[in-house]
Design a protein that fits this description.
By secondary structure, the protein is an alpha+beta fold.
Length: 596
């Protein structure tokens, strides 16, 4: 197991909102105090996947998948445990502490982060030493304070400045290559000259930072003319462009609470919008908006606005963003599209009209997802009547099928029916559009308890579901369990001792503590069963009763053993005293005898 303090894992699971994390990846629907969905781990049409926010636990009654918020990140996002911890901690703005003995791989990645930070500092120093890139940024309207906040720098017009400064050893050169800062030539093409050279040359440099503020990549923009206009770091061990958003770290550092994100296309657009007090602007990194971008956005805010140029390229980019947005279109989220006047971009537009007018434009002119779909389909399908409706239905069907069942899907279907003359009854829309609209019956309460089982199993299950009740168990009761010989008793002892020493509040915390122990999986299976107990107070009484019966039954077996031994006359003086004690204790707990 990664050497991350258990106390931090406890805090992480306690602070995480499992509904938000899972709901940012699959469509959840509220069902009483819990949430349900079609399971992401197997194919099904009727929801059998349930999320219990109070317990910080999920379970699928179809395939048996279950676990905590960290388990879900590991299984769904295919992350190793340390990376799942990093991902969840980053989303909460927490730094992961490390105990002594961290793995060599972890130390190596930290060294890569440190190297990227030093290169970013070098670029920032170079900007101060070169007048030409400074004049360029001044012409674009960037202030010194803004340049410092975004750590903007300059890569000199040299083939090997970074290589010479940071790649003096073979190991240093290897790391620069691994981070995409240096390009290695093919040996056959090197002709005996230098085998490597700097990737970024004569460009204004925009560091790309992760949620913790660490530099993970760079974007470089040409100052005058040249191609490509923007050059980005390649995929590296630190950087995956399909997941990252430029400016997201800076947006989260803003004092204003984030309620929406505005997705634009360029680094300078983001920086200038922040300068004009629009701190919720971010940009994709030389790639189209991806499903991973959307998932990350909706982990943070309920609303996203995409801003695109009004030309053909902008509209094509908007349509791609729409298609990636559809699986994330669920109740409680808002997806909008803003098309800028031709020839304008957010940078120039906000400079012309100011923050208030720009934000009014965002509020008034951005199209809701449904309105954007209606507009696009209307422009693509020009014929009217039955033929036109058939073509609209054909174009709309794959879009609607991507939206999870629920209110969003139904409202879009109704808006399309209204706009294009379909019948506005659910049956009519379902027939014409070829989709099912919210037909699934409510599941109601799921399976009942699988049976009470033995006393040890009952006690362990109560502790898994209501871990807070362990603190109410007396120390002498725990000491008495040492004499009990029952299957599973050592697990019960360990669970009670652990929860008394370090109380937990949720099932998720319990399971994380036992993740890498042999009992971890059985505890997870018990967490997936239902306990028919109305609350912690009733669970406390049931646990005390189960423990009392365990001690009582153990005492009776011990007394029977001693009495059997007494018949042979082989008792020690201590054993005779023990018989007296057990007879008195069990006599008090035994019900009065009744006659025939």
């Amino acid at each position: 197991m990664s050497l991350i303090p258990r106390s931090f894992i406890d805090e992480l699971v306690a602070r995480a909102n499992i509904v938000e994390v899972i709901g940012s990846r699959i469509a959840l629907k509220k069902a009483g105090r819990e949430f349900k969905a079609c399971c992401p781990f197997h194919s099904e049409k009727t929801p059998s996947f349930w999320v219990a926010p109070e317990k910080q636990f999920y379970h699928c009654f179809g395939c048996g998948a279950h676990g905590t918020v960290l388990t879900f990140l590991m299984e769904h996002d295919r992350l190793p445990f340390p990376d799942a911890v990093e991902e969840l901690a980053s989303s909460l703005g927490l730094a992961v502490p490390r105990e002594e003995g961290a793995s060599a791989a972890r130390r190596s990645s930290e060294t890569l982060y440190e190297l990227m930070g030093r290169v970013a500092q070098f670029y920032a120093q170079q900007l101060q030493s070169h007048e030409r890139p400074r004049r360029y940024l001044e012409r674009r309207g960037l202030t010194a304070e803004l340049i410092e906040r975004f750590a903007i720098g300059y890569a000199p017009s040299s083939w090997n400045d970074v290589l010479k400064r940071f790649g003096g050893t073979e190991e240093g050169r290897r790391r620069l290559t691994e981070l995409g800062l240096v390009i290695e030539k093919d040996e056959r093409a090197s002709s005996g000259g230098e085998r490597a050279y700097d990737r970024f040359r004569d460009r204004v440099m925009f560091p790309i930072r992760d949620a913790r503020g660490r530099v993970i990549a760079f974007g470089g923009r040409v100052i005058d003319q040249g191609e490509p206009k923007y050059l980005n770091s390649p995929e590296t061990p630190l950087f995956h462009k399909g997941r990252e958003l430029y400016g997201l770290y800076e947006a989260r550092q803003s004092r204003a609470a984030l309620s929406r994100l505005l997705v634009v296309e360029g680094y300078l657009d983001v920086v200038r919008l922040h300068q004009f007090s629009v701190p919720y602007a971010v940009a994709t990194l030389g790639t189209a908006t991806t499903p991973e971008h959307l998932k990350r956005i909706f982990q943070l805010v309920p609303e996203v606005v995409f801003a695109f140029d009004g030309d053909r390229a902008g509209r094509a980019a908007a349509w791609r963003a729409l298609q990636h947005s559809l699986p994330e279109a669920v109740e409680g989220r808002e997806i909008r599209f803003l098309f800028l006047p031709e020839g304008e971009d957010p940078d120039t537009l906000i400079a012309q009209e100011g923050r208030e007018a720009f934000e009014r434009r965002v509020a008034r002119e951005s199209l809701q997802l449904s309105e954007y779909v209606v507009r696009e389909l209307g422009e693509r399908v020009t014929s009217r009547g039955a033929d036109g409706r058939a073509r609209v239905a054909e174009a709309a069907r794959p879009l609607l099928e991507q939206i999870p069942e629920g209110i969003y899907r139904r409202l879009l279907a109704e808006r399309l029916a209204q706009a294009f003359g379909f019948q506005q009854t659910p049956a009519g829309m379902a027939e014409l559009l070829g989709v099912t609209i919210d037909r699934s019956p409510a599941l109601g309460r799921r399976v009942a308890s699988i049976g009470r089982g033995g006393l040890v199993r009952q006690a362990v299950r109560l502790l898994v579901h209501f871990p807070e009740i362990a603190t109410g168990i007396a120390a002498e009761t725990l000491a008495g369990l040492e004499q009990v010989e029952e299957p599973g008793i050592r697990l019960l002892e360990g669970l009670l001792a652990d929860l008394r020493a370090e109380p937990a509040q949720t099932t998720g915390q319990v399971l994380e503590r036992w993740r890498d122990k042999p009992a971890g999986e059985p505890l997870g299976r018990l967490a997936a069963t239902e306990v028919l107990v109305p609350g912690a107070a009733a669970a406390q009484r049931e646990l005390e009763e189960a423990l009392e019966r365990l001690l009582d039954e153990s005492g009776r077996r011990r007394l029977d053993l001693l009495l059997e031994k007494d018949r042979s006359g082989a008792l020690s003086s201590d054993e005779k005293l023990e018989i007296q004690r057990l007879t008195m204790e069990l006599g008090r707990s035994r019900p009065a005898a009744t006659g025939p």
